[in-house]
Write a structure and sequence with these properties.
about 150 residues; 6 helices; mainly alpha
Length: about 150
């Protein structure tokens, strides 16, 4: 794989991570019940928000591993044990994220809410994306890290 292309893809991964982090920090201030709340009330009195931050750890770990895999691709080390291990970690992170989302969906369903449909739909989107990432990582892992020709 060309070095410039992998550097571009690594920059996209970093940008994706920064955008996700910015969204996670900015969005709670826009939420209806938090519109007039103080920072303490937003970040320390909402157990679901704390859960969402903990659940984001596998996402950011997978982004870091994707950055590493792209580095190995730039060095033509697709089949190296390090690349295969990083792909396996990405797969496990995606599966962990699916588990976190499933527990979050149960949390949403068991609590009083005006708009459960929005949370369930976002959970469905995250789950489908995670399934796709886990499947792709498993396929690449089985192939020794090499993409199909």
């Amino acid at each position: 794989m060309k070095k410039n292309y992998t550097v571009f893809l690594q920059a996209v991964v970093v940008l994706l991570g920064l955008c996700a982090l910015a969204f996670m920090l900015w969005e709670p201030h826009l939420e209806g019940r938090n519109a007039q709340a103080t920072l303490f009330e937003i970040y320390f009195k909402d157990p679901f928000l704390a859960y969402a931050y903990i659940a984001s750890i596998p996402f950011f770990a997978a982004l870091y591993q994707a950055f590493k895999v792209l580095g190995y691709a730039g060095e033509n080390k697709w089949g190296s044990p390090e690349a295969v291990k990083a792909l396996r970690t990405i797969k496990y992170c995606a599966l962990a994220l699916i588990g976190f989302v499933a527990v979050g969906e149960v949390f949403i369903m068991l609590n009083e809410s005006d708009d459960r449909a929005g949370g369930v739909f976002i959970g469905l989107i995250v789950t489908l994306g995670s399934v796709a990432v886990a499947a792709a990582a498993a396929k690449l892992e089985r192939g020794g890290g090499r993409p199909a020709k």
